[in-house]
Specification:
Blueprint lengths: L16 H28 L1 H23 L3 E6 L4 E6 L10 E7 L31 E2 L9 E7 L5 E2 L15 E9 L2 E13 L6 E6 L9 E3 L5 E2 L2
């Protein structure tokens, strides 16, 4: 019987080298496309993720203040790009402040939290005026002199500002509107996606909003379906 010559170009599985290279090339292209779209998708949802994370840390601060009957402080820090929750324990001294939670914010090139987008000239339609969040040099260690928005929740759940020193002297009830948005490529002062969080000073109620750019309404801010109202 004539012996069949060995085909060096084929592997045991039946694929030739060119066929295997084609398969590997296709897999590589599909993988690259999948990574590209996954990265783009992740970036698209960064404003929503950031808003939810900050709202959660604010809500935890308010809830702890109510249940533990002592002041809690949330610092949104632009200098080191973090949001932190502190238990102040007492208002007699800042030496006993305890860090409860910390999170790193997204890069400011992807998500901004320091101002309102240029194309949006108004805040969400809350039941009472809620001013934009103010970032200024912190009076609290360890963030002293860093660029921080400080929100403190008292034992009754209400929100006050930082006060004038590290024990909160002179703090007054205040609400904030924190804008969280993705800059438009090529026009970084305007937004592709805009979200916001409002905190009512008198009650500490926290609400999330989303800006509906295509809407024809006089106020395009809408309650976020993702969160509803915290503390209502």
């Amino acid at each position: 019987m004539k012996k069949e010559p060995f085909n060096k170009k084929r592997f045991d599985g039946g694929f030739s080298m060119p066929e295997l290279l084609v398969v590997l090339t296709i897999i590589g292209v599909m993988g690259a496309v999948a990574i590209f779209y996954a990265t783009a998708h992740k970036k698209l949802y960064q404003p929503d993720d950031q808003a939810l994370q900050i709202a959660d840390i604010l809500q935890e601060g308010r809830q702890r203040a109510l249940t533990q009957r002592r002041p809690m402080r949330v610092e949104i820090n632009l200098t080191n790009n973090t949001a932190k929750l502190y238990d102040e324990i007492t208002t007699a001294t800042s030496n006993d402040d305890v860090l409860i939670k910390a999170m790193t914010l997204f890069a400011s090139t992807n998500v901004k939290v320091d101002s309102r987008p240029a194309e949006i000239g108004y805040n969400p339609p809350e039941s009472m005026p809620v001013p934009n969040a103010v970032f200024k040099p912190s009076v609290y260690p360890p963030s002293i002199s860093q660029n921080v928005c400080t929100i403190r929740f008292l034992a009754n759940g209400s929100a006050v500002d930082a006060g004038t020193n590290a024990t909160g002297t002179g703090a007054v009830p205040t609400g904030i509107t924190l804008h969280i948005w993705q800059p438009t490529k090529g026009t970084p002062t305007q937004s592709d996606i805009a979200r916001s969080i409002t905190v009512l000073g008198a009650t500490g109620v926290i609400r999330m909003w989303e800006f509906n750019h295509p809407s024809t309404a006089s106020n395009k801010w809408q309650d976020s379906r993702r969160s509803g109202t915290y503390g209502g």
